[in-house]
Amino acid sequence: MTRLLLRYRRTLVLPTALLLAFVLMTLQARSGSSLALLTKQILLAPISPLLRLATKSFEVSATLWNDYVDLRRVRRDNQFLKEEIRQLRIEMGELHETALEHARLSRLLQMNNQVGTKAVVAKVIGKDATNWFRTILIDRGADRGIQRHMAVVTTEGLVGRVVDVTPFTARVQLITDPESAVGVLTERGRVIGVAAGSHWDVIQIKYLPLMADVAVGDRIITSGMGGIFPKGIPVGKVVRSSRPTNGTLFQSIEAQPHADFSRLEEVMVLARPPSNTLSWAGKEPPP
């Protein structure tokens, strides 16, 4: 028993002291005598530092625990706020994209009301821009009245023509496709030629006579000949003009398409009007 008490003496000191203090305070409260008060003071004097230490330790522990709980709460709130901010950014991005799409569609629909022919607005859902073929896939087909050889435009200008139709989709050959050929004329000089695709992002304007008045910056529009493309659709702008000296009868002309094929998202498919002349209401291409 003695060994057991010696072994745990340090552990028993504080509880024993607290118990004695409690007993003394109880006795004082009951008797109120000076002897009890004196006895309490004598016995409490050695253990009062321990009592203060215990009280302080409890206060520190309580403070640390409260701080820990507050820290956990702050971290949880921060994580919640971060997630909320992330969701708001996603929603803002989606709203921005929706606003841009609505603006593009609004311009197409406005043009649709003024071109003087039936038209169908479609979204681009696929692209093939290899060196051999330059086509896009749109999400409108025979179910919406789309037919082969219909002209396809944007607000900037001519895109190409429909070459293949399924019930719900259609494939469009771009004017930059090497197999593409469009009857055109120069807007200023009214010289007739053919816009042919190439393996690059420019188009060749062929069959313009050597003496024809053509200069860099001239606009090229559809001529309306051939029965596919209505007259007056902007095609491109002359970026290079030269007169070969090798005996050929025609100028060498290159034009930059007005339509930006790298950014096509929505297009409009035109039905051929009876007059085959388009009252163009698209955005004026840059000079």
From TrEMBL:
Keyword annotations from UniProtKB, A to Z: Cell shape, Coiled coil
GO CC annotation: plasma membrane
Coiled-coil stretches: 71-98
A single BP term in Gene Ontology: regulation of cell shape
Rod shape-determining protein MreC beta-barrel core domain ranges (all copies): 124-270
Function: Involved in formation and maintenance of cell shape.
Stated family: Belongs to the MreC family.
PANTHER family xref list: CELL SHAPE-DETERMINING PROTEIN MREC
Protein name: Cell shape-determining protein MreC
Originating species: Candidatus Methylomirabilis tolerans
Gene: mreC
